[in-house]
Design a protein that fits this description.
Radius of gyration: 18 Å
Mean pLDDT: 78
Order of helices and strands: HHHHHH
Number of helices: 6
Shape: globular
Low-confidence stretches: 135-143, 146-151
Strand content: under 5%
Distance between the termini: 55 Å
């Protein structure tokens, strides 16, 4: 049996993450550049890595720490009430790991993900997200006006 303080901590964390996801996720998705998933990466273009200031390194460490904490909390929320899958999803986008860009492009190319995001962006008067060029869905979405909806 869980101690009352532990249960209170789980519930309050779950509620806080739910509220943050209701506010933060739509905000991040509408502020994201339309070519975020379709533009080439600096490494692939063989552009020189520029030296980063100290604060950039500190922010990157904090971002990865937050991603790690959210990943652990998301895994816990799979077994207790909360937004477990959504929290894991957000954590994977915050963390830096090999194959992250490929995973992001794979997720965004799913019509079940791409269509609602572009509907949200349309309501915010933002251009639709461009699908990655190698996606089998790219030509389908572009033929539907890049939003995934039949016009």
């Amino acid at each position: 049996m869980l101690q009352p303080i532990v249960l209170t901590l789980f519930v309050s964390t779950s509620v806080l993450l739910f509220v943050l996801s209701l506010i933060g996720l739509p905000l991040a998705l509408t502020r994201m550049p339309a070519d975020f998933f379709s533009r080439p990466e600096r490494r692939r273009l063989r552009l020189a890595e520029r030296k980063r200031p100290f604060w950039f390194v500190v922010l990157r460490i904090l971002k990865n720490t937050l991603g790690g904490v959210l990943l652990v909390l998301g895994l816990l929320m799979l077994f207790v009430p909360g937004q477990g899958l959504l929290t894991i999803f957000v954590a994977l986008f915050l963390l830096d790991f090999p194959g992250k860009r490929r995973l992001q492009r794979w997720v965004i190319s799913r019509p079940a993900v791409h269509r609602p995001i572009n509907a949200l962006r349309r309501r915010a008067r933002r251009p639709p997200l461009e699908l990655p060029p190698r996606s089998p869905y790219a030509t389908l979405a572009q033929s539907r006006g890049a939003s995934g909806h039949r016009g």
